Amino acid sequence: MKFQLIEDWTHQTMFLGKTITKTLYEKGSIFEPNKDGKYEITQPTGEISLFSLEDIKSLDFLQEIVEKQENDFEIIIEEIPEDDDILVRNWRIQLDVKTTRKKLKEVQRIIEEYVKPILN
User: Fold this and answer.
1) Residues 6+ apart with CB under 8 A from 27
2) 16-65: per-residue pLDDT in tens?
3) Which of 9, 65, 108, 118 is most buried, most CB within 10 Å of its CB?
């Protein structure tokens, strides 16, 4: 699992009465586990600390990155009845023509006379 910082990770120290803030990791930094499954975090002193997944999840300034896998796909299986040829459904028949209005009315008359009875 990968995690991303939602804000800068800073460390404050006092030196001679002056507060010094050092940014350890900037917002957007990504943390991913090493080969042993531990998360390596470099401390302000330069030491590397190893954190478990549970430790990382408990930090409120990190959010888990959910990665979409490339092979994610959706399968839709629909059973087609054997009598699909006689199944009644809504269908659309569309005809685009270039003609006059008079001829269009003739086509409409023919459709109503010959095709409509077939569809009923």
Assistant:
1) 5, 6, 7, 8
2) 888 888 888 888 888 888 888 888 887 766 777 777 888 878 877 888 87
3) 9
Please indicate, yes or no, if residue 36 is contained in any of the structural domains.
Answer: yes
Domain that holds residue 106: 92-119
The C-alpha atoms of residue 27 and residue 35 are separated, in whole angstroms, by: 24
Give the pTM.
0.45
Q: How far apart are CA 13 and CA 8, in angstroms?
A: 16
Residue 66's alpha-carbon distances to 22, 69, 75, 84, in angstroms, are 29, 9, 21, 42
Helices (H), 1-120: 53-57, 101-110, 116-119
